[in-house]
Amino acid sequence: MNRRPILPLLTIIIALGLAGCASNQNLRSTDGTTWQPATEAPTASDSAKADRLWQVFERYEGTPYRYGGTSASGFDCSGFITTAFDEALGRRLPRTTSQMLAAGDVVGRDQLRAGDLVFFRIKGKDQHAGIYMGDDSFIHSSTSIGVTRSSLNGYYWRGRFSQARRFD
């Protein structure tokens, strides 16, 4: 019996099966829920975005906090964010924390990427924001320190994180 005609057919079936495994479709579990990967791999553009944001941070690090401030003479938290996005990425964002909260795409804490905005609940409402930079850190203008880098899991911040937004 000649088995040669079966070999190409078997090769095609295996190739189709492997292509199906490599598909980027959502998978359904046995209970009917959709599974998606918890995190996305950083891309070259994410790295370039982070580099440009770090450059802006280095330029303004230590600049004092000033309510309503949007310049090197002083920043409030949203003023620093809008300036950083404008200078680093050429991107205009809403000016205030509440306007930022009403825009952008909601992102889970486990899906944060460099450049996402992180928001913190202080005195019962979302009133502080920063820019997530990866490795558990974010940059922001703190009322006590000015423009600085902090850890999401730092003593003051870990229990105050409320949500994150992505502006792509």
Automatic annotation (TrEMBL):
Pfam families associated with the record: NLPC_P60
Signal peptide: 1-24
Highest taxon listed in the record's lineage: Bacteria
Keyword Protein transport: no
Alphabetized UniProt keyword annotations: Hydrolase, Protease, Signal, Thiol protease
Domain (NlpC/P60) ranges: 47-168
Listed InterPro entries: NLP_P60_dom, Papain-like_cys_pep_sf, Peptidase_C40
Transmembrane feature ranges: none
Family: Belongs to the peptidase C40 family.
Name listed for the protein in its UniProt record: NlpC/P60 family protein
